[in-house]
């Protein structure tokens, strides 16, 4: 065996020269999403370059219509990209068949929509537990366990606190933060709630179909 046999491919999370090298769990490259409304073409995403590291929590903000939901749906495999790349845990969604994309989505991604009333990756019990959070009496860690049964690596949330009063918004945000910190779930959440950003590692702002900056939340 020559010396080549001792050289190894860098592994995920390998430390070299004191710097941790980690592949992003989510990455888009020049991502475009066009909708066709009759003869009119609506460019919802116009070349989005976005990266999220494993275990990161990112809040996405921006005015209504700037493409936030479109970005989330394309990243989550619910909608197809028109152009560009979408990498989820190393898999390029744009190169997968519909069946393969669905499988990847089921295994790796959980969705949280407004009012928390639709989490396809959770059991019925989990959804009931969430409803109890929202309508009930605060934070119960025993119920919390039920909610996280499925533990997808990535949680995508589209304005989960959009219809909630401040007390219930806080409960939901606390829950998301706990999922992120305790289970290491990567979270991308769209929000208009300025308070929400204090619960997250990073905030990105979108405008007219692109990300216009990336500001550290601390
Ligand atoms: P946001 O979530 O930031 O409000 P969206 O991603 O929902 O933005 O929408 C971005 C743009 O794409 C808007 O101009 C919206 O009207 C348009 N759009 C969204 N969904 C569709 C659709 N299914 N058909 C046509 N246009 C759409
Ligand atoms: Mg939206």
Tertiary shape: globular
Tell me the strand percentage band: 25-35%
Bound molecules: adenosine-5'-diphosphate, magnesium ion
- Name the CATH class of the domain at 54-79 and 99-216: Alpha Beta
Low-confidence stretches: 1-19, 116-121, 139-149
* CA-based gyration radius: 19 Å
Helix tally?
A: 5
Helix content: 25-40%
Task: Based on the model shown, name its key terms.
218 residues, alpha/beta, Rossmann fold, 6-stranded mixed beta sheet, 4-stranded antiparallel beta sheet, 12 strands, globular, binds adenosine-5'-diphosphate, binds magnesium ion
What's the structural blueprint in terms of helices and strands?
Elements: E1 15-16, E2 19-20, E3 26-37, E4 40-52, E5 57-61, H1 68-75, E6 83-88, E7 91-92, H2 98-108, E8 109-112, H3 124-135, H4 141-147, E9 154-158, H5 166-183, E10 186-190, E11 202-207, E12 210-216
Parallel strand pairs: 5-10, 5-11, 8-9, 9-10
Antiparallel strand pairs: 1-2, 3-4, 3-6, 6-7, 11-12
Helix pairs in contact: 3-4
């Amino acid at each position: 065996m020559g010396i080549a046999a001792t050289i190894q491919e860098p592994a995920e999370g390998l430390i070299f020269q004191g710097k941790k090298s980690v592949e992003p769990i989510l990455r888009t490259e020049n991502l475009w999403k066009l909708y066709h409304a009759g003869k009119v073409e609506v460019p919802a995403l116009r070349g989005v370059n976005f990266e999220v590291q494993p275990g990161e929590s990112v809040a996405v903000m921006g005015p209504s219509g700037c493409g936030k939901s479109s970005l989330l749906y394309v990243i989550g495999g619910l909608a197809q990209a028109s152009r560009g790349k979408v990498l989820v845990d190393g898999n390029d969604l744009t190169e997968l068949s519909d069946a393969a994309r669905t499988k990847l989505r089921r295994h790796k991604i959980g969705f949280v929509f407004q009012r928390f009333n639709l989490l396809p990756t959770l059991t019925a019990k989990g959804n009931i537990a969430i409803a109890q959070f929202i309508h009930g009496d605060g934070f119960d860690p025993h119920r919390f366990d039920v909610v996280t049964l499925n533990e997808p690596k990535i949680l995508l949330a589209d304005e989960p606190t959009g219809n909630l009063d401040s007390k219930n918004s806080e409960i939901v945000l606390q829950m998301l933060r706990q999922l992120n910190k305790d289970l290491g779930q990567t979270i991308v959440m769209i929000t208009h709630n300025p308070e929400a950003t204090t619960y997250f590692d990073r905030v990105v702002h979108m405008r007219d179909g692109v990300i216009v900056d990336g500001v550290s939340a601390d």
